[in-house]
Amino acid sequence: MSLRRTAAALAASTVLCAVAAPVAAADESPSAQAPAQRDLPSGLYGKDDPQYDGVWRQSTALLAQDAVGVKPASKAVAWLTGQQCEDGSFASYRPDPTEACTAETVADVNATAAAVQALAALGGHGERVERAVEWLRLVQNDDGGWGFNPGSPSDANSVSVVIGALDAAGEDPAKTLSAKGEKSPYDSLLGFQLGCDAEKDERGAFAYQPDEKGRLAANDDATAAAVLAARGEGLATGPGGEEGGNSGGEDRGAAKALECGEDDGGDGGRTPAEAAEAGAAYLTRVLEAGGGHLKSAMPGAEEQPDYGNTADAVIALAAGGHRDAAAKSLNWLEKNLGSWDKATTGPAALGQLVLAARAAGGDPADFGGVNLVERLNATGPAPVSVPSGADGGEDGEDDGSRNAAEDGDGGGSPAMWSLIGAGLAAGAGVGFLLSNRRRRAQ
């Protein structure tokens, strides 16, 4: 699902413009310097400031490498495990993981869920995965969902990435009930879907969150994330879904659009599978109207392609067996790869593309003439091994492991994260942060 384009960018378009400068001026200490101004950890993927997307992009990179058989460097895995707090949660980035997490450490639901997916895929981290899942259960909202940070209102993107984490950890999202409301994540997720009372061309879409009056507005980013999650799948889903049941290449046909009669109201009592189909039908319509891609929802950029969310839509459609529709957008991504600057050096963007190509039956090692696996590997420490044909060079070797602290935490800026959270809520979901951090790594 797309935590991208970045949270910082979204927040800046809402509330940060007015208050970011005073916040920055209030803390001029060395510890308050942006991570990009200091030496970045050798195990971290990417060279950009990791303050808002460190754990997300690391998780996406590791997940994509594992999906194509690359064994990542031990220091890269150690960096991620070292970011985990004692209670099982992850912040978006902790500059000094040797310092214990405190009440000032801002836990990030999306980063935690992404880390669960990566660590579960890599294997050998059962205790860490279990602690993270237990923390996610602890902060589950009464409606069955989750928000960006603990205690914030549920949103479709956060619920979606957590569903993927539960699936990766071997948990059943349908049985993961909230303590008070006894609602499941699916109860929360389906509450964001536009039903028969919506405009015809928006039916089946998902909103990021309802507005202050409870109204839902179609959001392509949230829809791509929710369609995948409604099938109980995570980011590393294979062709035809987790079981790979459609890996032979057969297309299951067009997604089934929401059926509405004259007297139908809003929800229609849909199952998660039916909701996924309706959402996939909406995505297919929007992609076709856009010439194969989704359009940006960022203010002032509405007519520009949204590469990250298009990749997410490819994964979602492929997971449902709608391979022809997924292939059309995957082809568009191949032809326009050179226009996505983050596809050159951004680990989250490259990871997205690797996962999209894999899900839709493409070749990540020959994506429009570009070896995405090789590019992804180059953004971090040399992998331990690379399958033959997956990289342009010889198998890499681990260039040393870092004895990262197993737990603990350091900084983070609670004030800044509160502002970003407010911006995300006010923006009503300009993207998953799957696009943001994950994503919003376009």
Automatic annotation (TrEMBL):
Signal peptide start and end residues: 1-20
Region (Disordered) location: 27-49, 233-272, 379-413
Gene3D superfamilies: 1.50.10.20
Comp. bias regions, Gly residues: 235-248
Domain of life: Bacteria
GO molecular function, one term: transferase activity
Domain (Prenyltransferase alpha-alpha toroid): residue spans on this chain: 66-173
InterPro entries in the cross-refs: Prenyltrans, Terpenoid_cyclase/PrenylTrfase
Pfam short name (any one): Prenyltrans
Membrane-traversing stretches: 415-434
Keyword terms of this UniProt record: Membrane, Repeat, Signal, Transferase, Transmembrane, Transmembrane helix
Designated name of the protein: Prenyltransferase and squalene oxidase repeat-containing protein
Source organism of the structure: Streptomyces radiopugnans
